[in-house]
Design goal:
This protein is of the alpha+beta class. It is built from 13 helices and ten strands. Helix 9 packs antiparallel against helix 10 and helix 11 packs antiparallel against helix 13.
Length: 395
């Protein structure tokens, strides 16, 4: 029995959410968990997994039905993130989910023709979408990006570099932040272009990482890369606002995923403590171990309730004033911080409880212990998010 087996909060989830949870949980237990260690060692996973995920509606959550998606509220995204995370492979989850940061700007700003050509094959798992914002010298300072796109007739010519790009090697479509106004040094000159990865002038290099081994991560170099002007998302100069909106959803999903990872570590540690015997007793019979496990459960549940309450408020934000909307942005930052801190605590304690086995490759806890930092840094580091939250709250 898991300490997390409680009925769902009725004001957050309905029967349709729980039915979807059961479907995603079964998918994760069948299609991901048994292979997570193998795929981690291989540094990749089968591309066929995308089509399998699409078949249960996992890729199309929240996208319009006419483009092949499944209209759904934010709670479905939270459910999916938690349940896939429990399989214990951040690399697989990050790659499967890269479309959810790569496609939203296409959906929000792209032309009807572009959306019809790009979105359906991605939601079917036939194509892969990614997002490229971060640059080698910029990090979280999006407004300082330097990659340039200069209009040349019916094309833009792109020059610059992007780094730490999830699905950057496999992706067929990459939404890229560029500076279309070379005179601008701030947010106003930033635009978004959809780059099709067979475009001449694009070079992609694999990056090696501490964690997320199963996920390809790339460094991109644009050297006179020619992109059709029709692939501009929205108007020139509209990119920064779209990027910020995208970050909010990404951070919520990362928070929900961190809750799932923390739970996975706790459940593995508890199972080990019940089985392992020391000094004539099961490990769980030692008070110090029980206290560790209780604190792990406590931190998971605090983070989970924070994330669920935030998601519910996001669904019901219509009619909120500007100050309340800003408070939701702050809460999103805080939810990610709370959840990743829970993940960090639970991963460290799980490795401690597993002892030598916790240091061996192949356990969920060892893998997730390596992946903590990318969750803390990705989508905005803890320091950046605290400062953003303070500004949104008027401190």
């Amino acid at each position: 029995m898991s300490p997390f087996d409680l009925p769902p909060a009725p004001h957050h989830f309905g029967p349709e959410h729980e039915a979807f949870r059961a479907t995603v949980r079964a998918f994760a237990e069948r299609e991901i968990a048994p292979f997570a260690a193998e795929w981690d060692e291989a540094g990749t996973f089968p591309r066929t997994l995308y089509a399998k995920a699409a078949a249960i509606g996992l890729l199309g959550i929240g996208y319009p039905e006419e483009l092949g998606g499944t209209p759904a509220d934010t709670m479905f995204a939270v459910v999916a993130a938690e349940e896939i995370a429990r399989a214990g492979s951040g690399g697989v989850q990050a790659s499967l989910g890269s479309l959810h940061i790569g496609l939203p700007p296409v959906l929000a700003l792209g032309s009807a023709e572009l959306k019809a050509r790009v979105v359906p094959p991605v939601l079917r798992g036939e194509k892969i979408a990614a997002l490229a914002i971060t640059e080698p010298g910029g990090g979280s300072d999006v407004a300082a990006l330097r990659t340039r796109a200069v209009r040349d007739g019916t094309h833009y010519v792109v020059d610059g570099e992007k780094t730490f790009i999830t699905s950057g090697l496999r992706a067929d479509f990459i939404t890229v932040a560029v500076r279309t106004d070379p005179q601008s040094r701030g947010a106003s000159g930033i635009s978004l272009l959809l780059v099709e990865t067979d475009a001449p002038g694009l070079e992609r290099t694999e990056l090696k990482k501490t964690g997320w081994w199963a996920s390809d991560t790339a460094h991109l170099r644009f050297n006179g890369c020619r992109v059709p002007a029709a692939n501009l998302l929205g108007e020139e100069g509209q990119g920064f606002r779209a990027i910020m909106r995208n970050f909010n959803h990404e951070r919520l999903v990362m928070a929900a995923s961190a809750v799932g990872y923390a739970q996975a570590c706790t459940e593995e540690a508890l199972a080990w403590a019940r089985e392992r015997r020391t000094f004539g007793h099961a490990l769980v019979e030692h008070q110090v171990i029980r206290h560790k496990l209780v604190e792990m459960v406590q931190r998971v549940e605090v983070a989970r309730e924070f994330v669920h309450a935030l998601a519910w408020r996001l669904i019901h934000r219509a009619g909120m004033n500007e100050q309340q909307q800003a408070a939701l942005v702050a809460r999103t930052c805080l939810a990610k911080i709370q959840a990743t801190q829970a993940m960090a605590f639970c991963a460290a304690e799980a490795v401690q409880i597993l002892g030598g086995m916790g240091y061996m490759r192949g356990t969920k806890s060892e893998r997730l212990y390596r992946e903590v930092k990318v969750m803390v840094i990705g989508g905005g580091s803890e320091e950046v998010l605290k400062d953003l939250a303070a500004r949104q709250l008027g401190f």
